[in-house]
From TrEMBL:
Domain of life: Eukaryota
Protein name (database record): Reverse transcriptase domain-containing protein
Family annotation (InterPro entries): DNA/RNA_pol_sf (IPR043502), RT_dom (IPR000477)
Annotated SUPFAM superfamilies: DNA/RNA polymerases
Reverse transcriptase domain ranges (all copies): 1-245
Length: 382
């Protein structure tokens, strides 16, 4: 993978390296433009047309569109372990989905897509880009390709400098070649969403735009026409890995882009905090349970307050409710008095309630009334 400028899913590489490589091209384009302006200011005549271009390729569902039948090829080119190649083939190329409908069972073969969640998926996609580099290397120098092609996963940039009209046409041909090879590998390219940045300077820059029909206008939008006839939208800036790629003041444009993105995130956070409907289901369930508990407690207290109006129920609570400071005065401490007075032996109803309230550990029921009264007060705890 050393010969591939793929900065995603490759150890030791990341977004920082991909961004630095892309911006290096932009800085070089700036220096070339300033040099041309200095020569023009000094009265030099016959300046040739020079410039730079950046093609940003948009791919839809890159992981889902990978042709599984092509996975063995890059692994074999990279001289991978034959056991690993065979394992990848069995997991992807020879994989079948077993399906059952009613009493019928059948198998469905899949031809595209890398399995999401599979630990091999990122590495396999990196090897697909390795195959792309090898295919492009059959038509151009691989060392030059490493300088002009930048990839982070499926985010692809082709950045070229040119010094005259033939080199411009060669750069446009490379754009066509890249799009053709991506399509040949089974990846879906969106020409409508792809964009091209073009910087021309020199004496014949305007003539190049008009004479060769390089830039065409369609429905009020400007497009660059490639040699194959493809139309790629002509833009002044394109987003790439969180920044803005532009030949004009990309620093300030990237700053504004990041500020706008941070404001959008803050709006989402504020909406989630302020909007009661945006709370999670877990918190909703907690609030519902809390409301039900409070409602039941209110109903219980309401029934307790009606104890004075229902003497029969109050008389039962006198014998069955232990002493607690939060209960009503009508039932508070009414249990201990009959036992201390020795009335539990005379009243069988009280004696039965007392006997049933003691747990298995409190089996000493034949002791003095004072001892039993104390044990009764502990019955709920036991």
């Amino acid at each position: 993978m050393e010969e591939v400028t793929q900065f995603g899913f490759v150890p030791g590489r990341g977004t920082e390296e991909a961004i630095c490589k892309a911006l290096t091209h932009v800085d070089e384009a700036r220096a070339r433009a300033k040099q041309s302006q200095r020569h023009a200011g000094r009265g030099h005549r016959g300046l040739k047309m020079r410039g730079s271009l950046t093609l940003s390729v948009d791919m839809s569902k890159a992981f889902d569109m990978v042709d599984r039948r092509r996975l063995r090829e890059p692994l074999e080119l990279a001289a991978a372990d034959p056991f690993l190649i065979d394992l990848v083939g069995k997991l992807h190329v020879e994989a079948l989905y077993e399906m059952t409908a009613s009493d019928q069972a059948f198998s469905v073969a899949t031809k595209r897509g890398i399995k999401h969640g599979c630990k091999l998926a990122p590495s396999l996609f990196a090897f697909v880009t390795f195959l792309l580099f090898r295919k492009l290397g059959e038509h151009c120098d691989i060392e030059a390709l490493k300088q002009i092609l930048t990839m982070y996963a499926d985010d692809t940039l082709l950045q070229v400098h040119f010094d005259d009209q033939p080199q411009l046409q060669e750069a446009l041909r490379l754009c066509d070649l890249l799009l053709d090879q991506l399509t040949e590998l089974g990846l879906k390219v969106n020409p409508e969403k792809s964009a091209l940045l073009l910087q021309l300077h020199g004496g014949s820059a305007q003539q190049t735009r008009n004479r060769n029909k390089l830039v065409v206008t369609k429905k009020g939008e400007k497009y660059v026409q490639l040699p194959s006839g493809r139309l790629i939208a002509l833009k002044t800036q394109v987003p790439y890995l969180g920044i803005i790629i532009s030949y004009h003041n990309y620093e300030m444009q990237s700053l504004r882009h990041r500020l706008q993105a941070s404001k959008a995130v803050m709006k989402e956070v504020a909406h989630a905090v302020r909007n009661s409907h945006a709370i999670t289901e877990r918190r909703r369930g907690f609030k519902t349970a809390k409301a039900q508990i409070v409602q039941r407690l209110k109903q219980f207290l309401k029934r307790q307050k009606k104890g004075d109006k229902e003497p029969k129920r109050a008389s039962r609570l006198v014998h069955l409710t232990p002493e607690h400071p939060s209960l009503e005065p009508a039932t508070r401490g009414a249990v201990a008095l009959p036992f201390l007075a020795g009335s539990y032996r005379e009243d069988p109803a009280i004696n039965g309630a007392y006997a049933n309230s003691i747990c298995e550990e409190c089996e000493e029921r034949g002791e003095a009334p004072e001892r039993q009264a104390v044990q009764y007060s502990r019955a709920a705890v036991c």
